[in-house]
């Protein structure tokens, strides 16, 4: 199972990545969590990423691609994974293709969580993470709309996009993802 979870901030992809990881016994690689851990530890990466994360901007591609390269180098990612939070722009999409090619890993499916913007803002305000103030939420949504939404069409054209309604309750989404993947797993 090799899955990329794509969707706006607040669409619940992290929650679903954790559920999927437990269900299929594969690691979930969350760039947001990895960055927050790096910032808490004040590692080199954390120090370089901090101002960007706190400003609600994308961290430079080169840092994120380095982080992903490290994750793919780990033995636990050899037999499957769920990536949550990457790629977020077309350059990162190309970097992912290249990394998979280098690792000799096949391409997986992209699960897209389609979710209305009002609901995203409501969920994130409730979550109350440090970068979840109303201003920063609007900023992250704007960046998502500008830089990440082109990936939807990109993967749709590649015929590996699975579209899920992200507005439903979490447990229903988990079931919908499993149901959508079932016929593919048996191929
Ligand atoms: P959300 O999806 O709610 O924005 P994440 O935890 O996925 O939350 O990401 C938090 C922050 O981490 C982003 O606002 C951004 O600064 C940074 N980040 C995460 N993934 C990437 C990425 N692929 N490219 C650049 N920056 C990223």
Structure report:
The protein has 187 residues and is an alpha/beta fold. It contains nine helices and five strands; from the N terminus they run E-H-E-H-H-H-E-H-E-H-H-H-E-H. It has helices at 13-24, 31-41, 44-54, 61-73, 90-103, 117-127, 134-148, 150-157, 170-185; strands at residues 2-6, 28-30, 81-84, 109-114, 161-165. The protein has a five-stranded parallel beta sheet, with helices on both faces. The two termini are 12 Å apart. The model has no long low-confidence stretch (mean pLDDT 95). The structure holds adenosine-5'-diphosphate. The site of adenosine-5'-diphosphate (ADP) has 17 residues, from helix 2 and helix 3. Residues 9-10, 31-32, 35, 52-53, 56-59, 64, 85-86, 88, 92, 140 line the site of adenosine-5'-diphosphate.
Characteristic key phrases:
187 residues, alpha/beta, 5-stranded parallel beta sheet, 5 strands, 59% helix, 12% strand, globular, binds adenosine-5'-diphosphate
Helix residue percentage: 55-70%
Number of beta strands: 5
Kindly estimate the percentage of residues that lie in beta strands according to DSSP: 5-15%
> Helix-strand pattern, N to C?
EHEHHHEHEHHHEH
Q: What's the mean pLDDT score?
A: 95
**Poorly predicted spans:** none
Largest sheet: 5 strands, parallel
Task: Estimate the global geometry from the Cα principal axes.
Answer: globular
Strand order of the largest sheet: 2-3-1-4-5
């Amino acid at each position: 199972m090799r899955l990329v979870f794509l969707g706006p901030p607040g669409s619940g992809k992290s929650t679903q990545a954790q559920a999927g990881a437990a269900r299929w016994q594969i690691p979930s690689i969350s760039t947001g969590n990895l960055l927050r851990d790096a910032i808490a530890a004040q590692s080199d990466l954390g120090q370089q990423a901090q101002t960007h994360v706190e400003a609600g901007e994308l961290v430079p591609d080169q840092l994120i691609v380095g982080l992903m390269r490290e994750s793919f180098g780990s033995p636990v990612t050899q037999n499957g994974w769920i990536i949550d939070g990457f790629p977020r722009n077309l350059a990162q999409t190309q970097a992912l293709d290249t990394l998979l090619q280098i690792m000799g890993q096949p391409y997986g499916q992209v699960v897209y969580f389609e979710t209305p913007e009002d609901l995203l803002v409501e969920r994130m305000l409730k979550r109350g993470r440090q970068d979840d103030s109303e201003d920063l939420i609007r900023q992250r949504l704007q960046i998502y709309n500008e830089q990440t939404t082109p990936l939807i069409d990109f993967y749709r054209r590649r015929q590996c996009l699975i579209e899920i309604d992200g507005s439903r309750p979490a447990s229903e989404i988990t079931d919908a993802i499993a149901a959508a993947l079932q016929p593919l797993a048996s191929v």
